[in-house]
Design brief:
alpha/beta; FAD/NAD(P)-binding domain; 2 domains; eight-stranded mixed beta sheet; binds flavin-adenine dinucleotide
């Protein structure tokens, strides 16, 4: 085989996860690493989702890296463009560009048990790495449902995460399929332009008012002059959410009062009782992601918007037919139907120690030790892996905890010395997962009476962390070597077990 480049660490993805990993590796003194990205620029979610109205649901003083504060956030909830610009800025300030390989989609990663390294095939060539950090994002591969007749639809079709900015929606009859976080931002943005909008709603979301406002020049100056004021602001935003999460994880019964607030938000804008009935959820608030908008309901009350309280079932020419038989003639279909979350495509491309892909290993559901390491996939870690998602706070908090774990993983490999790899013990993965699933039982995500994208094909919640961000931070502070087998190249077939690792979980 031709010689190829070898690096100590290959990071995959340039969203918050991949860029954060790169910063953290440099801080740990690791400079021999690359960051592989399939697109032609950095930014992940905030590069790909450029649909009209795209914005964050977490205030930006919390939805940003703790190590890269930004005193100049223009609004309490930033729009996509500002977050994307922030990530470009982080890339420059931390001098990450020399490490980044754009247009380098990872096609396959195969574990070489003899050399203890990953062989990686990318769109721009081959390389190998001692350690892989997979930060390909839980919401990065759009999912479009298999709708009969869609292929023969004569108009325009696109997914919210692949917005076609060359297509002019002005004066068009537009179908919006889905009522998730993206759809509720898109509808108010396109309603004033389109001739009409038909919204296909399988399940109505709970929608709370969005307390968005411009951050004043005085506030920004204060944050610039006295950086601790921005930290205090972040701390408050974090603390409120940290307290709220108890209701989701332990006391879903208390959420009734929040439902009343959401109902009032709806009643303010929707005066028609029939429409209100269509839009009122029949499951506990929080079971699906709570959405924030002060413009969604007012847009739905406009005469050029129709809410079809039924999913799109088939397409016949330019006629869309809902499951309840309602028909609509449209020029364009926008799918706000989410992403491949519990069946992430990267899992098909990772081949572990026993020749199985991660997708095969995860056939019964995704599982990884502390959200990072899957058994049989040595020196391979995911950022925002299984059960690391949040229902109510900033994912950046979880990403930073996982980066702490990554940093200690690298330190542990240094301490072991020589060529070594760490493979999560199946018993440790099972024990971790058992703890997570036990805690999950009483959460609103499992008991709230809804079906959501948090649940996998087997109905198991393999996406959400059923605790506080503080608990996750504590759980990922250190790598416990007892939870791993230490592999050495001298005995490729049989793992050498260090004495220090005898005490399994
Ligand atoms: C519209 C939208 C709104 C959101 N709002 C919020 C919010 O309000 N609050 C919140 O906490 N979270 C929100 N999220 C979740 C958000 O995805 C996370 O907060 C976070 O940005 C994820 O970062 P990441 O780096 O893990 O993944 P991403 O940002 O998705 O980055 C993954 C990167 O990996 C690249 N990649 C994927 N596969 C490959 C491959 N095979 N080879 C090479 N590169 C690859 C992708 O191109 C991408 O650049 C939102 C998500 C979306 C889609």
């Amino acid at each position: 085989m031709a010689e190829h480049e070898h690096v100590r660490v290959a990071v995959v993805g340039t969203g918050f996860g991949g860029l954060g990993a790169a910063v953290r590796l440099r801080r740990e003194g690791v400079t021999d690493f690359v960051v592989l990205e399939r697109a032609d620029s950095v930014g992940g979610t905030w590069r790909d989702n450029s649909y009209p109205g795209c914005a964050c649901d977490v205030p930006s003083h919390l939805y940003s890296f703790s190590f890269a504060p930004h005193p100049d956030w223009p609004r309490t909830f930033s729009g996509q463009q500002h977050i994307r610009a922030y990530l470009e800025h982080v890339t420059d300030v931390f001098r990450l560009r020399p490490h980044i390989r754009l247009n380098s989609e990872v096609k396959r990663m195969t574990w070489d048990g003899e050399k203890l390294r990953w062989d990686i095939e990318t769109a721009s060539g081959r390389l190998s790495a001692d350690l892989v950090v997979s930060a390909t994002g839980p919401l990065s591969d759009p999912k479009v449902p298999d709708i009969p007749g869609l292929d023969s639809f004569p108009g325009k079709v696109f997914h919210s995460a692949r917005w076609d900015h060359d297509y002019d929606l002005r004066g068009k009859r537009v179908a919006m399929v889905g009522t998730g976080a993206s759809a509720i931002q898109i509808v108010p943005a396109i309603q004033p332009l389109a001739r009409n909008v038909t919204l296909f709603q399988r399940t109505p979301p709970w929608v709370m008012p969005r307390m968005d406002r411009a951050i004043s020049g005085a506030e920004r100056r204060l944050h610039r002059l006295l950086p601790f004021t921005a930290q205090v602001r972040r701390g408050l935003l974090w603390g409120i959410r940290e307290l709220q999460v108890q209701a989701f994880t332990k006391r879903p019964g208390e959420l009734g009062a929040v439902e009343q607030l959401a109902k009032r938000n709806m009643a303010r804008a929707i005066k028609d009782p029939a429409l209100r009935a269509k839009l009122t959820p029949d499951y506990r608030i929080g079971c699906k992601r709570i959405l924030l908008s002060s413009t969604y309901y007012p847009a739905l009350a406009q005469p050029n918007v129709d809410v079809v309280a039924s999913g799109l079932s088939r397409v016949e020419g330019s006629t869309l037919v809902a499951a309840d038989g309602t028909e609509a003639q449209v020029d364009a279909i926008v799918f706000g139907t989410g992403f491949h979350v519990t069946d992430m495509p990267i899992a098909d491309r990772v081949v572990g120690a026993d020749g199985r892909t991660l997708a095969e290993a995860w056939k019964g559901g995704m599982e990884a030790l502390r959200g990072a390491s899957a058994a049989g996939f040595p020196n391979w870690m995911s950022v925002i892996g299984p059960n690391t998602g949040l229902g109510n706070s900033s994912m950046i908090l979880m990403i930073e905890s996982q980066l702490n774990y990554l940093a200690d993983f690298v330190r542990q490999l240094d301490v072991l010395g020589g060529r070594a790899a760490l493979d999560a013990r199946p018993a440790a993965v099972a024990a971790w997962n058992h703890r997570v699933q036990e805690r999950m039982k009483r959460t609103v995500w499992n008991t709230g009476g809804c079906t959501s994208w948090y649940l996998d094909a087997n109905g198991r919640n393999s996406t959400i962390w059923p605790g506080t961000t503080t608990e996750f931070r504590r759980a990922t502070r250190r790598v416990d070597l007892a939870e791993y087998e230490v592999l050495r190249p001298s005995a490729p077939a049989n793992a050498v077990t260090d004495e220090s690792t005898e005490a399994a979980v």
